[in-house]
Amino acid sequence: MPIQEEFRKEAQDKLKKLGEVLRERLRESLQDIDPEDLEFGVSFELTCDQCQELWKEAVEENVYMEVSYTEIMEHHDGAYLKSIFKNSTDGLWAERYVNIRSSGRVEISHALFLEEEGTLLRVERQPNGTFKVFAKSL
Fold it and tell me: Which domain of life is it from (predicted)?
């Protein structure tokens, strides 16, 4: 059954809103990083109180995501299903990683990717409320 375009647009609008706020904060952080370091990749933490609720709505609780990858893998403790769900718009995409183990344990994690001035940034929310960012030149 096809998804309603209105539902997709609402989910992407939430993602755009988060992207706008994060881009502004990340631009400030990128100014302090040596361009040569970006060639190899740089990790840093970002504090953004405004982003917390936006992240929750746009990434963690976003119910519109398309399946982008699925694989059944054999592991020493049995088979498990690995799936990646993706929501994207305008050089910005959120991914949800879901692993279901044969024991029934489900692991879910999230990441947000965005391109900014020739740099690819991967953002993950940490349990302490900060954001872990990995930046690398394209």
Answer: Bacteria
In the chain, beta strands by DSSP E: 42-46, 66-75, 78-89, 92-101, 106-116, 119-125, 131-137
Looking at every residue in the chain, the average pLDDT score rounds to: 91
Q: Using the predicted structure, report yes or no on whether residue 67 has a pLDDT greater than 90.
A: yes
Quick one: three-class SS letters along 19-30?
HHHHHHHHHHHH
Start-to-end CA span in the chain (Å)? 37
What pTM value is reported for the model? 0.89
Report the SS3 class of residue 105.
Answer: coil
Domain containing 108 equals 3-137
How is 112-129 classified by DSSP, letter by letter? EEEEETTEEEEEEE-TTS
52 Cα distance to chain centroid: 13
| pLDDT tens profile 85-119 | 999 988 899 999 999 998 889 999 999 999 988 89
Domain count, the chain: 1
